[in-house]
Amino acid sequence: MNKKKSLMGAVATLLLAGSVLAGCSSSNTASPTPDGGSENSGASGPQYTFRLADTHPPDYPTVIGDQKFADLVNERTNGRIKIEIFPSGQLGEEKAVLEQVQLGAIEFARTNAAPLAEFNEELSILSLPYIFDNDEHLWRFLEGEMGNKMLDDLEQSRMKGLAYYSSGARSFYSRKPLTSIEDLKGQKFRVQQTKVNIDLIEALGASATPMGYGEVFSALQTGVIDGAENNFPSYYSSNHYQVAKNVILDTHQRTPEVLLISKSAWDKLSEEDKKIVKQAALDSVSTQRESWEKWEKESAEKLKAAGVTITEVTDLKPWQDAVKSVVEKHGSKYQEILDAVDKARQ
């Protein structure tokens, strides 16, 4: 989807915009402190109340990261910049939220990188199957020069990337048995609404059914779809395991989450406030990642206790071979990024 089309599609959502409260006062200087903030950093200047949208429940790791970010901004500006968190999809599904972020109707959002690719196509690289060997490889790339450049490139789409959050590895789950790659054939799987994910499902011999995250549970209940794919914390917290009790750990994607701000809100901030917001986002990552690791382990234990059948994949080669065409199709235009991914292995 190009930027013009995204902006046109978002016009209908303008009535949902919240107002930004602003006022002015004199600035002051302050000395740095070890936590990356300042002793009186941002103590004076315009006052703002912003909103941050997230689709997950309040105790989910991304929302915990969101809250840490908001708390740090509030602390480092002495309450001058407040960021209110709206979890559980209160402000809409990710795609609709992103359209509002483009317009400045919502100032901040946490979203998976996959739907962001509809607004900035180079981010589709982060959803390519099996290009990251493990989480260590992924984070070496994300925290490197190219990963940071991809955040900055979102400005072309009227957004500003602030930081990446962890999202683990995605695997398939279904109402029907899943013990091998052959079991996927003919099944209908919900996917995020992106070209990469649709092609991925079809390359594995299954049928892709794009739909919003909030629709998946009822679609599983009614048999509209056979299954879906996600990480353990999302699979558990969404209660999808109650109707789709078969998981195969193929770990086909390690698509990160992205914390971002509307370009229009970013441009309103002073240079000092931009530094505070950016650093607070980066400083919130460790809290989010720690929460993620804890949730991932706890979710796995709870799923086993709930009687979910979990099948480990011991040989990924048949899976990797099946989706090579997807990597070639969507990665050929961004060889420089793929080279950086490969370099991050070293």
TrEMBL record:
GO terms for biological process: transmembrane transport. Residues 26-49 are annotated as: Disordered. Residues 1-22 form the signal peptide. Residues 26-47 have a biased composition (Polar residues). InterPro entries: DctP_fam, TRAP_DctP, TRAP_DctP_sf. Keywords: Receptor, Signal. One of its GO terms (cellular component) is outer membrane-bounded periplasmic space. It comes from the Bacteria. CDD domains: PBP2_TRAP_SBP_like_3 (cd13671). GO terms for molecular function: carbohydrate binding. It holds the Pfam family DctP. This is Tripartite ATP-independent transporter DctP family solute receptor. It comes from Brevibacillus fulvus.
